[in-house]
Amino acid sequence: MDSLHTAKTRYTTKAYDASKKIPKEQFEKLLEILRFSPSSVNIQPWHFLIAETDEAKQRIAAGLTGGYAYNAAKVLNCSHTLVFCTRTDISNEYLEQLLEQDDVSGRFKDEAAKQGQKDTRSGYVEFYRNELKNLSAWMENQTYIALGQLLFAAALEHIDATPMEGFDRNIINQEFGLAEKGLKASVIVALGYRSENDFNAKLPKSRLANDVIFTRL
């Protein structure tokens, strides 16, 4: 499918057809695309909770109450739901895990190259932690890059999606013991197929004009 056509026709789904499920092979393809998302210095500060069963989706929907209740049906009726989690810190052990994976993947021609990658990556982490003092925001920015990759990939696969920031983070973090794992919930994504009653599917897209958002230098 043409990428521009995909960008113009994908949208945030508001209602799902609970009877339609994403084929397993296609869903696994989306997960692999998600795994290959880019991140600054390949820091990969994310972890993804996958809900395929009704029981698992109900656990996520528990965090969609009160002012967020309007999102619960999306989670319960979609085919699959993902909770995008972000690390709360970057430890030396995690940096070593990344470096060793780089080595196994064949990214270093010699020990000097490996040491260079180690110094560069740890340098970025310390810069955001100690100088800018926004390591958490930097890591979460990377998680949102992965979100964008998934949303576009899903549209290319003719799968509907709904990113949701409207949820009780404390409930989700507690339900899945995320703090104990050094994680926090950042965004929830529902995946599946739109209902015929989805009003948003029939509305035209609205974006600001080129001259408002682009400055050609």
Automatic annotation (TrEMBL):
Nitroreductase domain span: 8-193
Top-level taxon in the UniProt lineage: Bacteria
Signal peptide, first to last residue: none
Keywords assigned by UniProt, alphabetized: NADP, Oxidoreductase
One term of GO molecular function: oxidoreductase activity
Pfam families from the UniProt entry: Nitroreductase (PF00881)
InterPro entries: NfsB-like, Nitroreductase, Nitroreductase-like
PANTHER family referenced in this protein's UniProt entry, alphabetically: NAD(P)H NITROREDUCTASE YDGI-RELATED, NADH DEHYDROGENASE_NAD(P)H NITROREDUCTASE XCC3605-RELATED
Similarity remark: Belongs to the nitroreductase family.
Protein name (database record): Nitroreductase domain-containing protein
